[in-house]
Design brief:
This protein is α/β, with parallel strands linked by helices and 647 residues long. 32% of the residues lie in helices and 23% in strands. Bound molecules: 5'-O-[(S)-ethoxy(hydroxy)phosphoryl]adenosine. The site of 5'-O-[(S)-ethoxy(hydroxy)phosphoryl]adenosine has 23 residues, from helix 11, strand 20, strand 24 and strand 25.
Length: 647
């Protein structure tokens, strides 16, 4: 890295630097170089200092069988112990661990002691129902503290959890339960979103009809609405809770014990179950809370993500609780009852550090500055962004209108697979450039390479890769180690392929350009083109479908589907609506296509491969326009492009 970094646009204020965990570029450089020269020594020291271990490791990193890493091999620890028990000996005992607000305005504050007690009791419930280390539990919950309690109770006993985002449909839920062969589903009657009840138990029931491995369904009562309970399978959380005690020691688990599986979209129709394990995952979550969010003991920290995505796992639950922070959690939508709900929450709880997504920022910009301006946001010290590239205009607004020009913005690049933040500024050290994630964190060997795996020159585009294993890396794809190898480790042997394109400027700053595979990023949620295509062709009237991401002002990308129909008379207007609804039913409302375009042919190469590249061009450049529901004749361009493609 060159010294010209100091010429960047936004340097932290002297006041910010003075109180930061890492002060100035010199301190950053010492850490970075130490990690580079001796990664095992570096991570080993941090693991020793920052986490509690029942037994220490024999080796920091066992990379003898790549790409299957073992971090802190042979050590014993427990994440729930690290997030709860170890805080109970001192002043954190009565500190708020979770401050929660429901959409209707109800509130709960759980101290570390409370949270510990609730987790122990629920772990006792799980034990009493016969669940044990290695079993799999699917968590399908609204954004309520019990979602975190369920996760921590599973972690306490070594039960592998898999949180399924509450916006997923019964079909998506079923596929995940089946893939995991889960014995347990933890859900709720419903949750609140935009003033309406999201009826989770009813959706779960549809999925459960075809999930023979599930023995128990535990249901938390959140909304109080009438729901069917199946005798011998369904149990109320509060009734089981009445039967257990408060005492439940945390199990000493192997550092590589599986913690959770989180499904994410890949390049095929089948979602990938990303597996994270214990010691290494927790260490990197813990360190990034300090390095990137610069959390202080007295802070109120709020990550607005949903617990169903990786951001919720690492930065609402495990990271914040491991460092003994106060994590704020909000159940509902940002516009309910009005567009100032988030700013109201920041004002009310005096939030110091706020972490959200560019899509949310853009949606709120559109509503006008008067919403945030009506509130006192002076408690904010630091802002964060995640999930997709943040465009400079949104960055500037976030900085000026929300941060009042005072708060650094940490743009954090990472993935479900990486487990925690990989590229991001340490805000008291690294000057910011709007739109850049800046520099890799210590111990993260990020690089940008060409097709042959050679590093590219400054300002040239290439593929973002990680050259060395890191503690919170995914360990495999559940049940499919072959796909794990093939997907991430074969393009450049021994090097992790991220699937993102990026460039690095002359200061060494990373600029993420987006996905290079058939994965779209809609509102910061990953969607696979193949998954939506497979959903569409399951519809009886659809012959073929091709899906591409279309640039969208608010959500970054929007789902655009090109569809050919089977022979017959079709009412195209109503069919477009029906297909949008169909995709929502097959996957979830957040995957609902923005646009369905009917066409009589799909552009294909002469060997029959659909040319999504061409369709992407069409939706990006608007070279073919028209009513969303009119029949498009792509014949001519298709023929031309097919010739070009194969010349
Ligand atoms: C994209 C979310 C630019 C990227 C934590 C990555 C980003 C994918 C950023 C992972 C960022 C995430 N700047 N792009 N700060 N953060 N991405 O698994 O394409 O839901 O590969 O994890 O989101 O999405 P995932």
């Amino acid at each position: 890295m060159k010294e010209t970094v100091t010429a960047a646009l936004y340097a932290p204020s002297a006041d910010f630097v003075r109180r930061a965990h890492v002060k100035g570029l010199d301190e950053w450089r010492v850490l970075f170089e130490r990690a580079q020269n001796d990664p095992e020594g570096f991570w080993g020291e941090l693991a020793d200092k920052e986490l509690y271990w029942f037994e220490k490791w024999s080796k920091v990193l066992d990379w003898s069988n790549p790409p299957f890493a073992k971090w802190f091999a042979g050590a014993k620890t427990n994440i729930s112990y690290n997030c709860l028990d170890r805080h109970l000996d001192g002043p954190r005992k009565n500190k708020a661990a979770i401050i929660w607000e429901g959409e209707p305005g109800d509130q709960r504050i759980l101290t570390y002691q409370d949270l510990h007690r609730f987790v122990c009791r629920f772990a006792n419930v799980l034990k009493s129902r016969g669940f044990k280390a290695g079993d799999r539990a699917v968590i399908y919950m609204p954004m309520i503290p019990e979602a975190a309690i369920a996760m921590l109770a599973c972690a306490r006993l070594g039960i592998v959890h898999s949180v399924v985002f509450a916006g997923f449909s019964s079909e998506a839920l079923k596929a995940r339960i089946q893939d995991l062969e889960a014995g347990l589903v933890i859900t709720a009657d419903g949750g609140w979103r935009r003033g309406k009840e999201v009826k989770l138990k009813l959706t779960a029931d549809e999925a459960l009809a075809e999930c023979p491995t599930v023995r128990d369904v535990i249901v938390y009562r959140r909304t109080g609405s009438e729901i069917p309970m199946m005798d011998g399978r369904d149990y109320w959380w509060h009734e089981l809770d009445d039967t257990v005690g408060d005492h439940c020691p945390a199990e000493a688990l192997d550092s590589e014990h599986p913690l959770y599986v989180l499904y994410t979209s890949g390049t095929t129709g089948k979602p990938k179950g990303i597996l994270h394990t214990t010691g290494g995952y927790l260490l990197q979550c813990t360190m990034t809370m300090k390095w990137v969010f610069d959390i202080r003991e007295e802070d109120a920290y709020w990550c607005s993500a949903d617990i169903g995505w990786v951001t919720g796992h690492s930065y609402i639950v495990y990271g914040p609780l491991s460092i003994g922070a106060t994590s704020v959690m909000y159940e509902g939508a940002p516009d309910t009852p009005r567009f100032d709900r988030w700013w109201r929450i920041i004002e009310k709880y005096r939030i110091n550090v706020f972490y959200t997504s560019p899509t949310a920022i853009r949606a709120l910009i559109r509503q006008g500055d008067h919403w945030p301006n009506e509130h006192d946001l002076s408690s904010l010290r630091l802002l964060g962004s995640v999930g997709e590239p943040i465009n400079p205009a949104a960055w500037e607004w976030y900085h000026r209108v929300i941060g009042k020009g005072r708060c650094p913005i940490v743009d954090t690049w990472w993935q479900t697979e990486t487990g925690s933040i990989m590229i991001a500024p340490m805000p008291g050290a690294v000057p910011l450039k709007p739109g850049s994630g800046t520099l890799p964190l210590p111990g993260i060997a990020a690089d940008i390479v060409d097709m042959r795996g050679q590093p590219v020159a400054a300002d040239r585009e290439g593929f973002l890769v990680i050259r060395q294993p890191w503690p919170s890396m995914l360990r495999t794809i559940w049940g499919d180690p072959g796909r794990f190898k093939e997907q991430y480790w074969t393009r450049y042997p021994g090097v992790y392929f991220t699937g993102d394109a990026a460039r690095r400027d002359a200061d060494g700053y990373f600029w993420i350009l987006g996905r290079v595979d058939d994965v779209m990023n809609v509102s910061g949620h990953r969607l696979s083109t193949m998954e939506i295509e497979s959903a569409l062709v399951r519809h009886p009237k659809v012959a073929e479908a091709a899906v591409v991401g279309k640039p969208h002002e608010i959500t970054g990308q929007a789902v655009c589907c090109f569809v050919t129909l089977k022979k017959g008379d079709h009412d195209i207007d109503s069919l477009a609506q029906e297909l949008r609804q169909w995709v929502a039913h097959e996957i979830g409302g957040f995957a609902r296509p923005e646009e369905i375009r009917f066409t009589d042919t799909l552009p294909k190469t002469r060997s029959g491969k659909i040319m999504r590249r061409l369709l992407r061009e069409i939706v990006t450049s608007h070279s073919v326009t028209g009513d969303v529901t009119t029949l498009e004749d792509l014949g001519v361009i298709t023929k031309l492009a097919a010739q070009q493609e194969e010349e």
